[in-house]
Write a structure and sequence with these properties.
Chain lengths: 353, 467
């Protein structure tokens, strides 16, 4: 793994951001520290997503996963940092780069991986695939394949939170590619008009498929996209799980207190291509390797744990081993779970009235 | 045991590729996620990244090798503590098929292949009987109501008994409905349950579907279905498909309703019949009432239904009055057609406004000595094929009247179904009476020419009777 020696604090990230990363408006680094248990959980949860996605890439390579498969590698701090400050009442919805969100909400690695392999043990019984998984129990509402559609749907989840007065907020994720879809603004308008409890999380990984944000968006400060509707927005270093956690707490407080929606722009980066078949020729290798070497969200937490004396290499190795065991178990399950019963072709089209 | 690194599939369609270049040499240490080779797929040249960490023990397929099958071992990776002596080079031709099958060593005996599912179109099968109904008994006590009033009462009654039902749309609350269908609802139920939306069909359709995922029961009014083309992605991709894509977890109990089809001289963009569009889609139910009683009974069923229902009304019918049962327990099951006039010589199937025109045609035909049986389809999906077939068995002739265009329309679907289920009973080709295959014109005379009229139905029925 690339060395990050010489960087001792996660806070250094906010001093040395990638080109499109901007300082927080207030100039301070939001979350410089966290208790040991929380750091260990961050490390574990992000590593689980990383290793899970690497395994998914491997199974894809072996032909065990088909179709489209969009990996979350590099973006782990976004969803893990936000999940840390959610409550059980909150709902989550996202687009199709969704494996990380599922794992972060506590969905089982086995069920997610078995859905990727199209087996009956998958969350959608093999009928949804990588882009379409759901868990009512974990309040994870998908998993949607049409860019931007989850923004209207998530606004509806926010509407339902308010209607049912359950105290929940919808975490509605979208990529930088979604922000130019018309329905996003239709939704922003209604959410602001009705003060719906929604936090819109824009995961700005700099590229909508192969088109950079600057080539797609007339204004690139995406957290300002709610200004026309009076929706406050804030950028956050999406490679720092602590910064994300702090910014998400502020955003959730805002939405939960009845003030309406909030836009959080997480400046992040995906290491892999848009999907498995993307050679990523639209960016330089240096850009990718520089991100991996200097900004990696997992390495940052690892350094905080080691340098803070919270854990030693052996403890972290033990976590690595446990995570790998979970992922390997999921992969085994996903390969041995049966294919769907052919009779299931005809089920789940309609609910019996 | 060293780990075999296999030739990866790096696109959905790749079965073999070129190993262009090794980025690591034997003896190099490798960390997870690090690129180790360049591979040319059927689409592009990609970097291939290591999944496990270790030391590159042996390269099995040299750089520049072409036609390397997916899943061929291309290198051996030594894990921590292993050295090169543990390596056993697999035989070169060991590429397992790049099939969607587990790795050979780990495979349990394959389960016997179950019998293939029934084909989609079981041509010879008898059409299913429609759902049972006791709707007729409610007509003992009726009140005369317009379709508009019946629709409003249906919503109000369902809102009274289920607090999760709410109505949203443009001008539904304070304005009392662009066509006054939601008149009075705001006063009774308040602004939280009768929600005026901005003019933002795509957005509020999606919002409604999202709310239905959270187990609310939205009634989403489109001011007309013409505007719902802005929203059709959410109706189909989100409302209709999510139950299936979620393996049955995430149903959407939602009604999309509003006037459909031509009104009166509002020209092409405001006059389209979307019946065949939505009826095409599995995961939707499509309802097209004609009478006020059916409008009420079917809308109540639609609101109670756990599935997304597309409810196609008609502006011209809003003001027409019919006898409607008074009992709030009256409902009409979705999926059941109704014989609205019995006859023996020719069957005429129609939906929505065309039912009235078909009845006018039947009167004219009766004067000519032809007894037409008129079937109000009421629901287009699921279609009550059974009732149509039973009628055709009696009359041996079918004419279908629809306001929509002929191409790939409901009448075409019925013609196909008659070939599948009633071929031997037909004494004449199925007749289609449709709108002219043009955008609807504004001029009064052209509009009348473009829309199907009772005389057109009469002509088609006579042709079917060879008269």
């Amino acid at each position: 793994m690339a060395s990050t020696r010489g960087r001792s604090k996660a806070t250094s990230v906010s001093e040395d951001r990638p080109a499109n990363n901007r300082e927080n408006g207030d100039g301070r680094s939001a979350g410089a520290s966290a208790p040991k248990e929380e750091l260990l959980k961050f490390y574990n949860d992000m590593l689980l997503i990383r290793r899970f996605e690497e395994k998914a890439g491997q199974l894809y390579g072996m032909g065990l996963i088909g179709g489209f498969c969009h990996l979350y590698i590099g973006q782990e701090a976004v969803v893990v940092g936000i999940q840390a400050v959610q409550t059980e009442a909150d709902s989550v919805i996202t687009g199709y780069r969704d494996h990380g969100h599922m794992l972060a909400t506590g969905m089982e690695a086995r069920g997610v991986m078995a859905e990727l392999t199209g087996r009956r043990g998958g969350y959608s019984k093999g009928k949804g695939g990588s882009m379409h998984m759901f868990s009512r129990e974990k309040k994870f509402f998908g998993g949607h394949g049409i860019v931007g559609s989850q923004v209207s749907l998530g606004t509806g989840l926010g509407f339902a939170h308010r209607y049912q007065k359950d105290g929940g907020v919808c975490l509605c994720y979208m990529g930088d590619g979604a922000v130019n879809q018309g329905q996003v603004y239709e939704s922003f308008n209604m959410a602001a008009l009705w003060k719906l409890p929604v936090v819109y999380v824009i995961e700005n990984n700099k590229y909508g498929m192969g088109t950079s944000v600057a080539r797609a968006s007339a204004t690139t400060d995406l957290h300002n996209r709610g200004q026309a509707y009076g929706i406050p927005g804030k950028p956050v270093d999406g490679m720092s799980v602590l910064d994300v956690r702090a910014a998400a707490a502020e955003a959730l407080d805002h939405a939960r207190s009845g003030k309406g929606p909030f836009i959080l722009e997480a400046l992040t980066y995906r290491y892999r291509g848009h999907s498995m078949s993307d050679p990523a020729k639209y960016r330089t290798k240096d850009e990718v390797s520089s991100m991996r070497e200097t900004k990696d969200p997992i390495e940052q937490v690892k350094r905080l744990l080691l340098d803070g004396g919270h854990a030693d290499e052996d403890e972290l190795k033990a976590i690595d081993k446990d995570v790998r065991a979970v992922v390997n178990d999921a992969a085994e399950f996903a390969q041995h779970s049966e294919e769907p019963d052919p009779a299931d072709l005809w089920t789940d089209v309609l609910v019996d009235a | 045991m060293p780990i075999e690194i296999l030739m990866p599939a790096l696109s959905p369609t790749m079965t073999e590729g070129v190993l262009s270049k090794w980025l690591k040499s034997e003896g190099d240490s490798i960390s997870a996620g690090e690129p180790i080779a360049e591979i040319e797929t059927d689409k592009a040249t990609m970097e291939f990244e290591a999944v496990e960490e270790g030391t590159l023990g042996k390269i099995l397929v040299p750089a520049g090798t072409g036609e390397v099958k997916v899943n061929t071992p291309i290198a051996l990776l030594l894990e921590e503590g292993e050295d090169a002596s543990t390596m056993q080079v697999p035989p070169p031709a060991a590429a397992p098929e790049p099939a969607v099958a587990p790795e050979p060593a780990a495979v349990p005996a394959p389960a016997p292949v179950p019998a293939p599912p029934a084909p989609a179109a079981a041509a010879a099968a008898e059409p299913e009987a429609p759902p049972a109904t006791d709707e007729d008994r409610f007509f003992a006590k009726t009140v005369r109501q317009t379709v508009r009033e019946a629709l409003r009462d249906a919503m109000a009654e369902e809102m009274r008994q289920d607090p999760t039902v709410f109505v949203m749309g443009e001008e539904v609350a304070e304005y009392q409905g662009a066509y006054k269908v939601t008149q009075g609802l705001l006063a009774e139920f308040g602004p939280d349950r009768v929600v005026d939306t901005p003019i933002t069909e795509h957005g509020f359709a999606g919002l409604g579907v999202g709310a239905s995922f959270a187990r609310l029961r939205p009634v989403v009014e489109f001011m007309t279905w013409n505007f719902a083309m802005q929203a059709i992605d959410q109706v189909i991709n989100s409302a209709a498909k999510t139950l299936y894509m979620s393996g049955g977890q995430m149903g959407s109990s939602i009604v999309f309703r509003g006037p459909n089809g031509a009104a009166a001289r509002v020209a092409a963009q405001h006059s389209q019949d979307y019946a065949s569009w939505y009826s095409h889609v599995p995961g939707l139910k499509v309802v097209t009432p004609w009478s006020a009683a059916d409008a009420k009974g079917l809308l109540k069923s639609a609101i109670r239904d756990p599935n997304p229902v597309v409810f196609l009304e008609n502006e011209i019918l809003y003001g027409q009055a019919f006898e409607v049962p008074e009992d709030p327990e009256f409902t009409v099951p979705i999926g059941r057609a109704k014989i609205v006039r019995a006859g023996s010589d020719v069957s005429i199937a129609a939906y929505s406004i065309m039912v009235g025109k078909a009845l006018e045609a039947a009167d004219i035909l009766a004067e000519a000595g032809i007894q037409a049986e008129v079937i109000d389809l009421r629901t287009l999906r699921p279609l009550d094929t059974h009732t149509i077939v039973e009628s055709v068995k009696k009359t041996n002739r079918l004419v279908v009247a629809q306001e929509g265009w002929p191409y790939a329309g409901i009448a075409a679907e019925l013609a196909a179904r008659m070939m599948e289920h009633a071929f031997d009973y037909l004494d004449a080709p199925v007749g289609r009476v449709c709108a002219a295959d043009v955008p609807l014109p504004y001029a009064a005379n052209l509009e009348t020419l473009a829309l199907p009229q009772p005389d057109d139905i009469v002509a088609a029925a006579k042709a079917a009777c060879y008269r």
